[in-house]
Sequence to fold (702 residues):
Amino acid sequence: MRHIALLLFSLLVMTHSYGESVSSPDGSIKVDFTLDNGRPCYSILYRDSPVVAPSHLGMTLADGGADLVDGFEVMSTNHSSFDETWHPVWGEESSIRNHYNEMSVTLLQASTERSMTIRFRVYDDGVGFRYEFPRQPHLTYFTLKEEETEFAMTGDHTAWWIPGDFDTQEYSWTKSRLSEIRSLHPVVMKAHTHNLSWKTFSPTGVQTTLQMLTDNGIYIALHEAALVNYSCMHLDLDDTTFVFRSYLTPDAEGNKGHLQAPCHSPWRTVRISDSAVGQLASRLTLNLNEPCKIEDTSWIKPVKYCGVWWEMIAGRQTWSYTDDLPSVNLSLDDYNSVNPNGTHGANNAEVRRYIDFAAENGLDQVLVEGWNIGWEDWAGKKKDYVFDFQTPYPDFDIDALNAYAHSRGVRLMMHHETSGSSRNYERHLPDALKLMQRYGYNAVKTGYVGDILPYGERHYGQWMVNHYQYVVEEAARHNVMVNGHEAVRPTGLCRTWPNLVGNESAKGTEYEAFGYTNAAHTTILPFTRLNGGPMDYTPGIFETDLSWAGNKNHVNSTIAGQLALYVTMYSPLQMAADTPENYEKYKDAFQFIRDVALDWDRSVYLEAEIGEYLTIARKAKGTDNWFVGCKANGTGHKSSIRLDFLDPGKKYIATIYADDKTASYVTNPKAYTIKKRRVKAGDRLTVNAAPGGGYAISIICI
Fold:
């Protein structure tokens, strides 16, 4: 009788539940998928300990009919494995292994005859999963009310977070327990330098990448990969249960996405490691993106540049040509009878000065901001027809300056500030790109300061995600590289479109001039913002006291710390952001900026703790030379590293750019030492990073 009862219980469980699992190739990570009473659910274990507790999946719809959250049964389950090595056009290493085990579960909602597949890919460094909707008669065009993805945390973890915001990531990162986010949210917002466009949605809402650390030493990061034709995902925390729920950026009507089957969501990612350096070494986000779609990538090259920019940011010069016009109508006629303001930075003499500096120091390009008409009334006006990206100011001779730049072996870098008018940018983009090709420009810095036009759309909504993608693809057709500022934070799309060489999407060096960046900022960004792709952080500020520009603020770093950023803040696009005359004062330190590579064969993550310090060694592509960078927070760091990454039997000269023993980012930021010594594989170096400082080392094979 007992045997019959157990059999009946087993049949009942089989009727109402379903379970399947998939593990990483090394077996350290396991995903369990269940279907309990028709509701999809997953959980993640790391080394047999729960990392993500049982969490629900699904979507609610805004256009009527049953939501895609329950009432499902399993149609099929498939398991597979994949292992390849691919070679990025540029990157932190010249080859990346893409090795995962996959499980796809296809579900049928019998009441509506709709089907949905949930696909999991499990790597040794984390998990990616997404929703897929095949072509089907009962689900064609549909509108999302919300994506109901959950990430149930197993405790009150320590987190590094910024508030959930539909328009900007330009916040300082806060370290706290999950349970403290609600109480700290008003403090963070009070300190926030409210951008021209910003919109928070919840006192417990946060943005990704959300970096966490459990009490038992497990590092977890939540993000997304391959964000295409979909709204950017935020996370809203239930701080009584520590469950995060996805919160997509709404459109002007409040909807979260408009989809057409067949289609799929971006990948939802969970990066897992038992060390901070393991987080830095992960390639999960890149691997979840599609292979490169550009057939000929020979024109895509890393760029080291300077530019007419920092003097405007610091406050000594302006982007606009005149102070006489309260408004302009994009016509040179507006400028024929006005007085120049005398502070316009993008003038012929100034640009030539930067071209000469670039040519004399081996820099590839010169960025020029404020070269085109329209800057007099661009910011915060919600102006549709604001720039044409083609007509220069009277004091910027585009023909002569391009000829001069090319004669000196330098290119000019185009700047396209849209002031948020995406419609206007799309209106002019084809002709603007043709102008770039005509003059030999091959890189553009785009900007989206201010509220988005069309009205009501947000920087991180589906409309703008599609706009950014259009710009990248259209630029690729014209052999132009893109550096997007104020765009949605990256999700690894630079693998698919490697002409996307940089993004901002976080507080960059400009916030040092505004007085709103702390010394720990650059020890957090590599774990958070850089998860999705490189950042155009614009380092290299040597004159940290900005009084020379009439600015009362100062840069929260030492000179040696600024040098370290060229290694620790990876990007194929690196700016020598200070002015030529400021670099002239510190020629010996500037040599590291001249020497440091932009593209790498290998990266070794030597030591790190989030928000405290990180030390990275990188081997320059196609050479035997290495560069090391260490950046510390406001308390400093004593670093002792072994040079085990060097090739045995080879000899090297190490040039060590370090903080002087008296250095501090507050009291003595410009005190540094430069020492040379012979080194070999296995040697140990001990170097002190001052508060807010760091060190940089070039290791040249001899």
